[in-house]
Amino acid sequence: ELKVEQNPLFLSMQEGKNYTIYCNYSTTSDRLYWYRQDPGKSLESLFVLLSNGAVKQEGRLMASLDTKARLSTLHITAAVHDLSATYFCAVDPNNNNDMRFGAGTRLTVKP
Amino acid sequence: ETGVTQSPTHLIKTRGQQVTLRCSSQSGHNTVSWYQQALGQGPQFIFQYYREEENGRGNFPPRFSGLQFPNYSSELNVNALELDDSALYLCASSPRQGMGTDTQYFGPGTRLTVL
User: Are A91 and A4 in contact, with CB atoms under 8 Å apart?
Assistant: First the structure.
């Protein structure tokens, strides 16, 4: 059974601090996605990682992918309150957009 | 805005009833996937339609069914509703099935409550 595990599931940070969210998955997948979800809202695409060693950055967020270790990380630099949301990683094991999501990391950034 | 719309926004049904949820994809997107997101959990893949045919299904019973139409709209039908069907239902469309760097664009979701 395919498993996508995120940790931590809950994260409370102070503004200005750095932290990393981890996403492990149990099957081969060439693609790894990161999404953000605000309370009561839909999913917003953050990153699409398509190959081993891929690294993408947008603002204070940076995502990386190690397909050999089946691990992706989402690094937060100098957190700000606006980053408070739930972050999901997802894999696409069949390369046809039937994605499998992790349980999500609920991030709260406190002043 | 992703260009993907869903209706209705909220819906309340009772156990045993049937429900139809609707999604309108972006023009040109011939692949649509449906997901169920229970409160506090990640989305779970229900099924996918590609060019009006079901093309992959997650671990959901047959009372979950769907349709896709030539005008880029689709439906999710759920029969014999159960309390555990209460969730946010998301549809997501993509331009081509599993091609290149295409990502999925999610709609705003329909919040279904089963009493």
Answer: yes
